TrEMBL record:
<dbReference type="Pfam" id="PF13456">
    <property type="entry name" value="RVT_3"/>
</dbReference>
<dbReference type="InterPro" id="IPR002156">
    <property type="entry name" value="RNaseH_domain"/>
</dbReference>
<protein>
    <submittedName>
        <fullName>OLC1v1005135C1</fullName>
    </submittedName>
</protein>
<dbReference type="InterPro" id="IPR036397">
    <property type="entry name" value="RNaseH_sf"/>
</dbReference>
<dbReference type="GO" id="GO:0003676">
    <property type="term" value="F:nucleic acid binding"/>
</dbReference>
<dbReference type="GO" id="GO:0004523">
    <property type="term" value="F:RNA-DNA hybrid ribonuclease activity"/>
</dbReference>
<dbReference type="InterPro" id="IPR053151">
    <property type="entry name" value="RNase_H-like"/>
</dbReference>
<feature type="domain" description="RNase H type-1">
    <location>
        <begin position="102"/>
        <end position="177"/>
    </location>
</feature>
Amino acid sequence: MANFNSVWEALKMVTLTFILWFHWKALNKIIYEGGAATTQGVIALIQGQVLDMLRVYSIKVKSKVEVNKVEQLLGCRLANPKLRSYKTVRWLLPQTNSNILNSDGSSLSSFDAGYGFLIRDDRGDLIYGETGFLGDACSFKVELAGILFGLCKCFQMKLENVLAQTDNLALALLLQKGTIFLGSTFWL
């Protein structure tokens, strides 16, 4: 086990490993699922992975001092770094004789998307949980899949009084009002 003096030393060690791993996965996808790797395609792939890493670093920092350390580590300036703020969140029990469906979706890249959901009773005890891989999907689709598969499971289990929770505002608006408002456009 390596002994690191700081988080930043650890990041220096693993950043290149992650970039190479995602690059290797993407190239194998091209090779084994058809298509040819062009020079422009490989360059675009690497640039996309580096930008993803920069986004991760710009979101995960807690102070201006850490922003400076990340910029020094990467050898470039971060555009509009967002400092992390902490907020204590408490999970509230649903009403008596109710169940709650917590769902979420995640998309690491356009080819690595998945969903998950938990169903809990009115005491907060776990009734059922599930995760699944969707492959090529955007974040909205995987968020929707979490709610859809979770509600289907509630129906199969004959659960009543189910409250569904999602952190996706567009999905919540769609389920509540039948529309999605993005900018000046309504989506039905």
